[in-house]
């Protein structure tokens, strides 16, 4: 893993956004895997600023978001689709027909997951996927367990994950849905490049387990040790466990 430690989250997210913009200049038809949550928020803000300065062109790019709450329609203000519209899609020149999202309100979750995997496969997989990491080591909503699921699937969200999402629901974890649809480990591991973001001391243990712990479904992010091109972008808090080794 290629690890970069920055003095602040702002420096890390600016560098990550610049890297994505450079990748787009090299390959304008880039296929992006995009997360939600707190970690990527400042990356989206930086990308929007680059677009405003004429330094980012997404007109030929394609995006696939990683997950959506089960049972939640796209226009719900708490949906991940609404999050992306507010913070990113409305401010850049991604073509609407190139934006792909799981439909949490689809009547058949399994069919929706199969549709999404087929759509990713049709474009040849992800070129660059941006990931956060949960305090319990989850990536996308691939939660710790006895085994991991390769395809897109319905995931039950752990208590830790739901607590981490409480800010999207008025700081009330009880309002966070119990399940979500998520891209599985296969699409993530088959992406040609992974950018992983982690900020704050609360992520230090997960980052250390990801990089130096055993490869185990108890820490899904640890499987990234097997990936050929992972860029890890940390602030000093998230890197604190690495510095103690």
Explain this structure:
It holds the Pfam family Glucosamine_iso. GO terms for molecular function: glucosamine-6-phosphate deaminase activity; identical protein binding; isomerase activity. One of its GO terms (cellular component) is cytoplasm. It is a single chain. This protein is α/β, with parallel strands linked by helices. It has a domain at 71-123 and 136-189: Rossmann fold (3-Layer(aba) Sandwich), CATH 3.40.50.1360. Helices cover 31% and strands 17% of the residues. The strands form 2 sheets. The protein has a 7-stranded parallel sheet, with helices on both faces. A 3-stranded antiparallel sheet has the order 4-8-7. β2 (31-34), α2 and β3 (62-65) form a beta-alpha-beta unit. The chain is globular, with a radius of gyration of 17 Å.
Q: Roughly what percent helix?
A: 25-40%
Question: What would CATH call the architecture of the domain at 71-123 and 136-189?
Answer: 3-Layer(aba) Sandwich
| Radius of gyration of CA atoms, rounded to a whole number | 17 Å
Gross morphology is globular
Q: Which consecutive residue ranges, at least 5 long each, have pLDDT under 50?
A: none
- Summed up, the helix count is 8
Structural class call reads alpha/beta
**N- and C-termini, Cα separation:** 16 Å
Tell me what portion of residues adopts beta-strand conformation: 15-25%
Largest sheet: 7 strands, parallel
CATH fold title of the domain at 71-123 and 136-189: Rossmann fold
Q: What kind of oligomer do you see?
A: single chain
InterPro entries: Glc/Gal-6P_isomerase, Glucosamine6P_isomerase, Glucosamine6P_isomerase_CS, NagB/RpiA_transferase-like
Organism: Stigmatella aurantiaca (strain DW4/3-1)
Domain Glucosamine/galactosamine-6-phosphate isomerase: 10-232
Protein name: Glucosamine-6-phosphate isomerase
